[in-house]
Prior knowledge:
By secondary structure, the first copy, chain A, is mainly α.
Amino acid sequence: MREASNRSNRRVVYETLRRKVLTLELPPGASLSENELAASLGVSRTPVRESLILLGEEGLVRVFPKVGSFVSRVDAARVADAQFLREAVELAAFDDIPETLDPDLLAELRANLEQQRAPGLDLEKFFELDESFHHGLLRLSGHGRAWSTVVAAKGHLDRARRLGLHETNGMGRFVDEHHTILDAVVAGDIPSARAGLRAHLRAVFDDIEKTRRRSPELFASDDGSVPVRRSVAVWE
Amino acid sequence: MREASNRSNRRVVYETLRRKVLTLELPPGASLSENELAASLGVSRTPVRESLILLGEEGLVRVFPKVGSFVSRVDAARVADAQFLREAVELAAFDDIPETLDPDLLAELRANLEQQRAPGLDLEKFFELDESFHHGLLRLSGHGRAWSTVVAAKGHLDRARRLGLHETNGMGRFVDEHHTILDAVVAGDIPSARAGLRAHLRAVFDDIEKTRRRSPELFASDDGSVPVRRSVAVWE
DNA sequence: GTGGCAGTTCTTGTATGTAAGCAGCGTCGA
DNA sequence: TCGACGCTGCTTACATACAAGAACTGCCAC
Lengths: 236, 236
């Protein structure tokens, strides 16, 4: 028997909405009416509502009782929180990297880096590879399952990154850093690997900060205020 | 306007169920029928169902479609995951402790420690104080908001601790360690504080491991199997 | 023109009805 | 005695109806 079938309606709705929020297809502030979403997706309000509750717990959506649900704004404080958590977890994992690395996993990581170097790589594909690379690093240390927690917490960080990369287009440098880090790990030079990873994560964060200074309106602080209802109709 | 009114039925049901699961009042394997819970709590199935979904995402409950929902077993792997996450976050926070500590917060921590020394402290109260103490340490470093992520991830750890402390009754040592850690922080000796905290967290974990070796049945691995339906009726 | 008030229309929260499916038990047949 | 089969009762998943409340709209008085 399988648990909570991955093809339940709720799962599909949840994943769809989450993807659209993270990719900014549903931008911060967009209205998420249960009725409209249900109609759009061809399901009833129930699975939509359950998905919105879950996204609310993740901080990606804000639910105002009797008023409406809205995609949460990219909040600078939350971005920093996620950055801290991610750094803490990924660096701590390096302390537990075993002497001999799992060869299959290593091959997978190398293949991943190869793809990151592919010419004309599009942004979404890069993000996918980046996610998978960092997850792989965690798995090397035997803490792969901690990734899900990081993923759940870093929604705001991901959105901020997307805002940043749209402007700076600095994928190349990040790929180089990935190579440097993996090389250090393979060489057994954990201190270098730690330093490299820390610098890498900080660079990503600095990139976000740069964007924030340039376009503060994207990062409007997410207090309790309700967005005006007109800023709506982002759902096709 | 307040967000998601803290007094919504769902919030109450969720918090009630979560507390009962963490305190083992609802023991691992217990059946959680939506209908029974709704009747017991005097609400409809809707808020109960939404709460079970949230608890399912936290890993505290397993939902088997068309079969039933059950309190998840205390899974050794999940306990270890939470331990790793907690250690990573709490230790990383110490790197960001400022030169001058917030005096109000410091006073709060000292008062907390005083209460931990109170004679005849009961177990639940100790857990409360312990939680609050560790959260306070995080706040000292300005990363207080990361605590919620830790809390969400460490449900299994908490249940395992409760199983352990029922047997060993080793509160006293933990309180001493709390004092040592805070003293080191106040003295500005971050390396000592880190070492102390690490040892403290490891001691807690070792305690759990001892319990696990002694009573492995409590830690039955939580595979996909459905508990027998008879192991039920834990709800009064 | 402007402020206040009431109605309308939206929202989410909750309750309940319906559908689909698994498990267990009893029965029947060999 | 034991295995297969179908019925019964339970479960969750989903759909829908109803309730309560917030906010916008337009009218009306001034």
